[in-house]
Amino acid sequence: MPKRMDLSGKKYNMLTVLEPTDRREARYTVWKCRCDCGNITYVNTRHLLRGTIKNCGCVPSESSYYGKTGEDITGQRFSKLVAVKRVENSRDGKTRWLCQCDCGNTKIVKMSELKSGHVKSCGCMRPHSTGRNLLGQRFSRLVALEKTEKRDSKGSIIWRCRCDCGNDTYVSEDSLVNGRTVSCGCRKRELMHQIPDTLTFVDGTCVDWLKSRKTRSDNTSGHTGVYKTKEGKYRVLIGFKRQKYYIGTYDNFAEAVSAREEAAEVVHKGFVMAYQEYTAYAKNHPEWAKNNPFMFEVEKVQGVIRVVRKTDIPKNKTNNLNILPG
After folding, report:
1. Between β-strands 40-44 and 77-78, what pairing exists: parallel, antiparallel or unpaired?
2. Quick one: which of 109, 143, 158, 222 has the most CB atoms within 10 Å?
3. Block means of pLDDT (10 residues each) for the chain, length 326 residues?
4. In a 3-state reduction of DSSP, which class is residue 100?
5. Cα separation of 124 and 173, whole Å?
6. Residue-wise over 5-39: b if at least 16 C-beta within 10 A, else e?
7. What distances in angstroms separate CA 203 from CA 129, 166, 235, 267, one per listed residue?
């Protein structure tokens, strides 16, 4: 492993390297440096060696976009922001200033963003940040307790809230008012636990989903289970119990759709009908049901898809429900 370069004590332009830090920028070590003007700044190895950054920003450098990046703008106003003091440069070496917003909040902003008008406030001017008083108000399971100084990416104020379960959580004003967040997360966990009670899962398959399943249009042909090949033909598949079964390839789209619907009738609808028949019998024969759980399989043997009910109901002498050529 190559030995790390030690730049301590060396001088590059107006910068004297003091010591390395634990920070990295694009895999380069960031060094603590003292500028000839007395300011401390942080510059990575690449910028020092290439001379990309020559000082802390104290020497004005003109450009059509950034203007005089080293000038003193203390007390100057930029929309709702007033420059208070200069702070550590950004990672890309741009001059930054601590600014006071008219709303009372402070924000660190690049000088270039102040001069260009790209940043005009601490974020309070954004539409989502109304600054309304939510203290004590209830939003579903959440009660707003305290307004923080933090804001989300849209500028909406973050509130500390107490959930009915006792946990504290932090939610933006926008999410509270619009009902996007209704708990600390406990409601979602409860709903996840309730899924097995609200949906019927049998032999690894959701009966409710198969009953209500509708044709989707999320593939290359526009019909579920029908896929257009590079040759312009249509390949038909059907899925059941996390497996896909090949039905066939057709020249005509209508024929492919018809084959897919026939397969769904046999496999999906066959499963639902078999389960309903099973439950009807099991309801009157609970002891038999304990020893005979419902099982339904799709098998492909020598190119032929066989739909088989593994659990044989006494009144029905045959297990095989249907056969589909594959």
Report:
1. unpaired
2. 109
3. 74 92 85 88 88 75 44 86 84 82 86 85 64 87 92 83 94 89 87 54 53 49 76 83 80 84 77 78 82 75 67 57 49
4. strand
5. 12
6. eebeeeebebbebeebeeeeeeebbbbebbbeeeb
7. 50, 38, 28, 14
